[in-house]
Amino acid sequence: MYKEENGQIVVRLNCQEEISDVINALDLYSRIWIGQLLEIDNQMIWLKEKLYETDSAAKMTPFFVNIRNRILPGSLKDIGNTLHSSYGIFSKKIDRRARIAYDMQQVIRYTSAWYFHPDGGHSVDFGTPMQAEETVKMPIANCFADDRETGMEIHLTCLSQLEVLKEAIAVLGCLYRGKICDLFAHYTKDADTLTVARHIEQYYSGIKDKKELPKISDSLIAEA
């Protein structure tokens, strides 16, 4: 997945599936850091049968709020006990890893969009990345065609970007496997928080899985 080239870290994504996986991973990773924990429930629609019949968002909200108040201790004062609000990605009150993930996700998403639609379009995918983490230079990405597949090379500017990318892939993998406790272990080591996360995991494990579950490309998991 990655190599060092002329003193620079180069990440290689070998197909569109890997590009999509990385975009989704970075998006989920940063959303959790800013307090959008209901994104976990939103993602469960791809994993669980008839999730809408359980009113899962309402049932899990107290647990998610509990976890958010622990991971982001200032959120109770800044946001309140609602999951319909969150910190913005440009807030200085969130972990810088959220902003690094956001910047990488933008570059990858926009590069892919322009490659497949060089004439542009009207969706946000064709915008210009707005840098959130000013202490780290934005990566540079380029698409390539290889054996009828479209891949991408991403030239990272620091080791922090690689660490965030690998952690984001691991977090998405935890979600797809239903390992909510392991997911939150990437955000905190607090035992009480992980106990709450285990309750969430048990709830979702009681809902029937869909026949075909999404999974991350094996090559990405191996590197993460």
Tell me what the structure shows.
This protein has 224 residues and is α+β, with helices and mostly antiparallel strands. 49% of the residues lie in helices and 11% in strands. The protein contains 9 helices and 4 strands; from the N terminus they run E-E-H-H-H-H-H-E-E-H-H-H-H. A 4-stranded antiparallel β-sheet has the order 1-2-4-3. Helix 1 packs antiparallel against helix 5, helix 1 packs across helix 6 and helix 3 packs antiparallel against helix 8. The N and C termini lie close together (9 Å).
Structural class designation: alpha+beta
Counting DSSP E segments of at least 2 residues, the number of strands comes to 4
Global outline: globular
Main β sheet profile: 4 strands, antiparallel
Average pLDDT metric: 91
Count of alpha and pi helical runs:
9
User: Low-confidence spans: pLDDT under 50, at least 5 residues?
Assistant: none
Strand order of the largest sheet: 1-2-4-3
Helix content: 40-55%
Run of helices and strands? EEHHHHHEEHHHH
The radius of gyration over CA amounts to 18 Å
Q: How far is the N terminus from the C terminus?
A: 9 Å
* Percent of residues in beta strands: 5-15%
